[in-house]
Write a structure and sequence with these properties.
The structure holds two protein chains of two kinds.
Chain A: E1 5-17, E2 22-34, E3 38-42, H1 49-56, E4 64-69, E5 72-73, H2 79-86, E6 89-93, H3 104-109, H4 118-131, H5 147-159, E7 165-169, H6 177-194, E8 197-202, H7 205-211, E9 214-219, E10 222-228, H8 229-234, H9 239-249, H10 251-260, H11 262-265, E11 272-279, H12 281-284, H13 287-295, E12 298-309, E13 312-322, H14 325-337, E14 341-344
Parallel strand pairs in A: 3-8, 3-9, 6-7, 7-8
Antiparallel strand pairs in A: 1-2, 1-4, 4-5, 9-10, 11-13, 11-14, 12-13
Chain B: H1 2-7, H2 21-53, H3 62-77, H4 80-95, H5 101-125, H6 129-137, H7 142-153, H8 155-181, H9 183-192, H10 198-226
Classes of the chains: A alpha/beta, B mainly alpha.
């Protein structure tokens, strides 16, 4: 079942008419999500990502384009067929959107009423609350729960109709970092245990990094860059993508302090301050040792950050490379040949 | 009895019998209840339609909303005392007479339903749009969303505006009473005020206040039960 498209958005365009101007929220976007993906769509607010994911279950009808979900053209469905289809697409929200007048168990049972018998619903609700770790809060009301618990209820409710797809609309953006991480872990385990395909939109690259296998970056209604998580982290092309990645390693702050260090302030040509970025296999090689042994170049590591993305190391080092000019040239070639991205950094802060 | 006769000399003789105090109380209750039931149903239906057909609503329909919205506004703008007069021919057509509590029901309903419809609309608009969106995403039909989300999540607010409307209806029945509908309003004006019998006016007022307090009291209990 691997590698078949479960969601295909083709040339999706969404325009809103406001009083004085037309807003082009989504601008001819193509997107393919495959079964089993956790597909992250990242962008700043207003980039059009919320509008784009709402096209998947037609909460937002596109101005033009085609939407194929689970093998069917969504725009060709009548109202009844669309409602049936929506039951196979769960959705969770930034502000949870639970019903305050109903208990936790009633909220989770809500989508099942009328579709299943009372006993079946009871069993299903118990199973789902167990799954999200809230079995003991069944009789509580949403107002009595913390944000993280509310989102767990939201997830249980979204899973009640056994959907194949889960859309997560900034589901962790209202939560603190620790709770965010726990909710993301839960989503990841649902992806692995139930084979749930997840489309996750967020403005936090950190969330994408933790669980997504693919990522698309949106800006002004367009997808400006996309690919597997590792490819995007290893070789980002667009400046915005780079910005998002840098937020996960706090590079800006690191650079500021690196520039204060004597080793940098007293730097003399041909020595160079560089950022080395590498993914996966590159790390296995004893990089720094090789540079010294084979090229007589010393690497003075001033900042290092190594993260594990999908079980693969993703490293960022800021180093001063010192040696003779020709050795340094050789070194850069060696690094490029071994998939290490080298970026020369200014010793002084850019004005 | 002597104490009552001392403070309410004009009330005691007209306590029971035709056009008496007890009859006036029943007439007020009859007009209030009749209006609340019919205008209540109409108001809820119209209020729901306003919410559904408004821009961004589940069944957004600009021309329909425009017309309904304007009709509600115009009907609400008519002072009730003038509505009573304007409605008179229609009332005669429907009820057969322009006088009495049943005849008063027609203008009372026409005057109350739009007011209540607007209150219902505002009450339902307090329901978190995110919850409505979630229900849509789950595949609920608009009817199911009305029944299971709007009316349920908006219930405490509906109770609040319901109480407000009932109290306003009690007030309107008194006004209708002044033009021949009977009830406590008629008692206060025709039998009390116009005959310089202030004790009759006071008794009518006391019973109206009692009705209002009872409605408010029951409403508060229900509101408290619904609060989570």
């Amino acid at each position: 079942m691997a590698n078949d498209a479960i969601i295909t958005l083709d040339q999706i365009d969404v325009q809103f008419k406001e009083k004085t101007r037309a807003v082009h929220a989504v601008d001819h976007v193509d997107l393919t999500v495959e079964r089993g993906d956790i597909y992250g769509i990242v962008g700043y607010s207003g980039a059009g990502k919320s509008t784009l994911v709402r096209v998947i279950n037609l909460l937002q009808r596109p101005t033009s384009g085609t939407v194929t979900v689970l093998g069917e053209d969504m725009l060709a469905l009548d109202a009844r067929q669309l409602r049936a289809k929506r039951q196979r697409i769960g959705m969770i929200f930034q502000h949870f959107n639970l019903m305050n007048s109903r208990t936790i168990a009633e909220n989770v049972a809500f989508p099942l009423k009328g579709h299943k018998s009372k006993a079946e619903i009871q069993a299903k609700v118990a199973e789902l609350l167990e799954l999200v770790g809230l079995a003991d809060r069944a009789g509580a009301y949403p107002a009595e729960l913390s944000g993280g618990q509310k989102q767990r209820v939201g997830i249980a409710r979204a899973l009640a109709s056994d959907p194949e797809i889960l859309i997560s609309d900034e589901a962790t953006s209202a939560l603190d970092p620790k709770t965010t991480s726990a909710i993301l872990d839960l989503l990841k385990s649902l992806n692995q245990r139930l084979g749930l395909t997840i489309v996750l939109i967020t403005h936090e690259m950190e969330a994408v990094k933790q669980i997504c296998n693919k990522v698309a970056v949106m800006d002004e209604g367009r997808v400006i860059e996309r690919g597997s998580l590792l490819d995007i982290f290893a070789k980002p092309v667009q400046p915005l993508t780079k910005d998002f990645i840098d937020t996960t390693i706090q590079l800006e702050a690191a650079l500021d302090s690196v520039r204060q260090q004597p080793a940098v302030q007293q730097l003399q040509a041909p020595d160079a301050l560089v950022r080395l970025t590498y993914v996966g296999a590159s790390t296995d090689q004893p990089l720094v040792a090789t540079l010294y042994k084979d090229y007589n170049v010393t690497a003075n590591i001033l900042f290092g950050d190594i993260q594990i993305l999908q079980d693969t190391p993703f490293g960022n080092l800021i180093v001063v490379l010192s040696g003779r000019a020709e050795d340094l040239a050789q070194t850069f070639k060696y690094l490029a040949d071994h998939d290490v991205t080298v970026q020369r950094l200014d010793v002084k802060e850019e004005a | 009895m002597s104490l009552l006769e001392k403070f309410f000399p004009n009330v005691v003789p007209i306590w029971s019998g035709d056009n008496g105090v007890t009859q006036a109380i029943w007439q007020t209750l009859y007009m209030t209840l009749g209006t609340v039931v019919v205008a209540g149903i109409l108001g809820i239906l119209l209020g729901i339609l306003l919410v559904l057909t408004d821009e961004g609503g589940l069944l957004a329909n600009r021309p329909f909303y425009f017309i309904l919205d304007k009709v509600v506004n115009v009907l609400r703008a008519i002072p009730f005392i003038i509505l009573l007069a304007v409605m008179n021919p229609l009332t005669r057509l429907i009820v057969g007479t322009g006088i009495g509590p049943t005849a008063a029901l027609v203008p009372l309903i026409v005057g109350t339903a739009p007011f209540f419809a607007r209150q219902v609309q505002n009450a339902l608009l307090t329901v978190d749009p995110g919850v409505i969106e979630a229900a849509e995403a789950m595949g609920l039909s608009p009817l199911a969303i009305v029944m299971r989300v709007y009316l349920r999540e908006g219930l405490s607010e509906l109770v609040r505006v319901g109480v407000l409307t009932i109290i306003s209806v009690v007030g309107l029945t008194a006004m209708a009473g002044a033009v021949g509908a009977g009830g406590l309003g008629n008692l206060a004006i025709a039998l009390g005020y116009q005959r310089y019998q202030n004790d009759v006016v006071w008794v009518a007022l006391i019973f109206i206040l009692v009705i209002v307090f009872i409605v408010q009291f029951i409403g508060d209990i229900i509101a408290r039960k619904l609060h989570h």
